[in-house]
């Protein structure tokens, strides 16, 4: 287990014990540990009447889990908050989803190292062999085409953007996804939306997180903004 940081205030609970964590006095939980943690502990948090900010939004490729947690949030008067993470323009997209949507698609481009060892069996959760020999790629290569449900379930550490886009707009089975490994080191997200509310085309050139090449540097900043918004009396961009 990780040692307690020396500069952590004495009244802050630092623990790997789940029960001790839930016994502590807090109102907003922030999940930043992966889809299995959402499944294992998310319902308990909401059932206690506590708010929960989820970053591993791909966990909600399970309709049953999403329905359960939404139901608990309503019943216990808690809030289930889905972090936008690296997804831009969530406010516009979610608002536009109030009327008919013709097409939503997203293209996620990351360095090969981000995709290596990241492919899982959606049914068993077991790690699968890589779909490509990533170290041998010499040009940008599409490694997956399919729906947001398939992408987020097969690449749970990489494709949460796809799940978030789908949940905000056209649904997990009607949002098109393309995942690309680019040996140039490029990390980008390209989104296209067409519907009765208008059309939107967004391209974001991101930078890898220094501590995790699978994700973008904007993600922790986005989570911090979400925490501040959840606790603030004034929210910009609600």
The radius of gyration over CA amounts to 18 Å
Content of β-strand: 15-25%
- In round numbers, the mean pLDDT is 92
Tell me the domain tally.
Answer: 2
CATH architecture of the largest domain: 2-Layer Sandwich
User: Can you count the beta strands?
Assistant: 10
User: By CATH's scheme, which homologous superfamily of the largest domain applies?
Assistant: Dihydrodipicolinate Reductase, domain 2
C-alpha termini separation: 38 Å
Number of helices: 8
Strand order of the largest sheet: 5-6-4-7-8
Give the helix proportion (percent range). Answer: 25-40%
Structural class: alpha/beta
Return the string of H and E elements. Answer: HEHEHEHEHEHHEEEEEH
CATH class of the largest domain: Alpha Beta
CATH fold-type name of the largest domain: Dihydrodipicolinate Reductase, domain 2
- Main sheet attributes: strand count, strand direction, barrel closure: 5 strands, mixed
Descriptors for this entry?
single chain, 238 residues, alpha/beta, Rossmann fold, Dihydrodipicolinate Reductase, domain 2, 2 domains, five-stranded mixed sheet, three-stranded parallel sheet, 8 helices, 10 strands, 31% helix, aspartate dehydrogenase [NAD(P)+] activity
């Amino acid at each position: 287990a990780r040692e307690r940081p020396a500069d952590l205030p004495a009244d802050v609970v630092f623990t790997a014990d789940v029960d001790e964590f839930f016994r502590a006095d807090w109102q907003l939980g922030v999940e930043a540990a992966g889809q299995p943690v959402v499944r294992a502990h998310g319902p308990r948090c909401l059932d206690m009447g506590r708010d929960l900010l989820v970053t591993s939004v791909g966990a909600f490729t399970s309709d049953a889990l999403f329905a359960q947690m939404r139901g608990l949030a309503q019943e216990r008067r808690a809030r289930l908050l889905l972090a936008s993470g690296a997804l831009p323009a969530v406010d516009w997209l979610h608002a536009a989803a109030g009327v008919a949507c013709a097409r939503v698609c997203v293209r996620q481009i990351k360095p090969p190292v981000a995709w290596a060892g990241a492919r899982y069996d959606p049914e068993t959760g077991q790690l699968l062999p890589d779909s490509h020999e990533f170290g041998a790629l010499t040009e940008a290569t599409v490694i997956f085409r399919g729906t947001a449900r398939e992408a987020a379930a097969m690449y749970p550490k990489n494709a949460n953007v796809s799940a978030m886009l789908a949940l905000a707009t056209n649904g997990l089975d009607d949002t098109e996804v393309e995942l690309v490994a680019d040996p140039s080191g490029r990390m980008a997200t390209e989104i296209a939306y067409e519907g009765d509310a208008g059309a939107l085309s967004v391209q974001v050139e991101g930078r890898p997180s220094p501590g995790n090449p699978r994700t973008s540097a904007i993600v922790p900043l986005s989570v911090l903004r979400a925490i501040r918004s959840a606790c603030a009396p004034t929210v910009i961009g609600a």
